[in-house]
Amino acid sequence: DSGVTQTPKHLITATGQRVTLRCSPRSGDLSVYWYQQSLDQGLQFLIQYYNGEERAKGNILERFSAQQFPDLHSELNLSSLELGDSALYFCASSADSGGAGREQFFGPGTRLTVL
Amino acid sequence: AQTVTQSQPEMSVQEAETVTLSCTYDTSESDYYLFWYKQPPSRQMILVIRQEAYKQQNATENRFSVNFQKAAKSFSLKISDSQLGDAAMYFCAYRHNDMRFGAGTRLTVKP
Fold it and tell me: How far apart are alpha carbons A49 and B15 in whole angstroms?
């Protein structure tokens, strides 16, 4: 158990819909990262938040947005969903703000299926 | 842009034998970190080993060790005395600011 929690574990929805994925980092970690893993693919970095502020952006679509709240939990919002958005979405947390070698601890992921 | 390449989509090893997974990366930075993560069928991402680029000594964690060649930008993972529980996808990752992952190598362990 990494200490990072993600809800829900599974999500099935239809094209055009909007969903929210939730992540709670490990106690004490200030950074939250979001990744997308499509079937049999590597992880694609989407976005990082550090202590409530956006820190780094990767390959995140404009239809996707995220935020980190004062209690440090984070939400990833996916809108106007398309079939290709079906993937495993990971949240990870670390104690550092980025650029350092601190390990990222991964949550169990949320599997999103868009029908 | 930093890229991470894992040239072996699949590898197979006999139980108790040794296997080496390859990883190369491209960067213009001198200070960075490299990681190997394991993803078993549960899909949980588990850190296997970490290497700081400024350290010349190769990292070791029990049966897992790396061969870090900074000039060649190579970072291979050696698994000794392979066990059935080592079967998983293995991802090489590079971090300067954000983390970049390779496409992964699927390791099969034969009894």
Answer: 42
A3 φ/ψ sector (left φ>0, alpha ψ -120 to 50, else beta): left
Q: Residue B7 is encoded by which pair of tokens?
A: 């040239």
Asked whether the beta carbons of A46 and A113 are under 8 A apart, the reply is no
Identify the DSSP state of B87: -
Interface contact B91-A42, CB threshold 8 A: yes
Given a cut of 90, whether residue A97 has pLDDT beyond it is: no
Residues 28-87 of B with CB under 8 A from A: 33, 35, 37, 42-47, 50, 52
- CB of A58 less than 8 A from some CB of B: yes
Distance of CA B102 to the CA centre of its chain: 9
CB-based contacts of B52, cutoff 8 Å, min separation 6 = A101, B33
Q: Which residues contact B1 (CB under 8 A, 6 or more apart)?
A: none
pLDDT in tens, B27-59: 998 889 999 999 999 889 999 999 999 888 999
**B102 interface with A at CB cutoff 8 Å:** yes
